[in-house]
Amino acid sequence: MVATKADHEAQNGSNAAGPADAAADVTDTSDETSENLVATVATIGVVGVGVAVFEAALLPGVVLGAAAVLAPKFVPQLGSALKPLFKSTVRGAYKITQKTREFVAETQEHVQDIVAEVDAEVDKKGASLTEAAPAAAPGAK
Predict the structure, then answer these.
(1) 95/93 Cα distance (integer angstroms)
(2) Residues 37, 39, 45, CA angle at the centre, nearest 5°?
(3) Chain Cα centroid distance, residue 53
(4) pTM for this one?
């Protein structure tokens, strides 16, 4: 039988990695993350102030660089936050498209009706003009 470290510690009555240590490890990790974030923000702030003092034209580049540094941390959260907004925008655009199609179809139908009425009037006037024209012709004696 192979004895593991946990078995050995259990036999000796010592438990080096207890629940308190596990909680401390989690706290240490979150502290390190927040310290890294604070250090990054402080560095960006110092560089930004230096750029603003010496050459203001470089400031947009610094802002873009800072955005590039911070983007991988916040883009996944931003994407999940914007998903409902994007979904409702697509839904609204689809509804507007459907309403526009209905409007265009109705307008096209009205225009076709008007064109048919005008054709009927032209045909009626054209038939009456052709019947009256031979009778009123000046050369027909």
Answers:
(1) 5
(2) 100
(3) 37
(4) 0.36
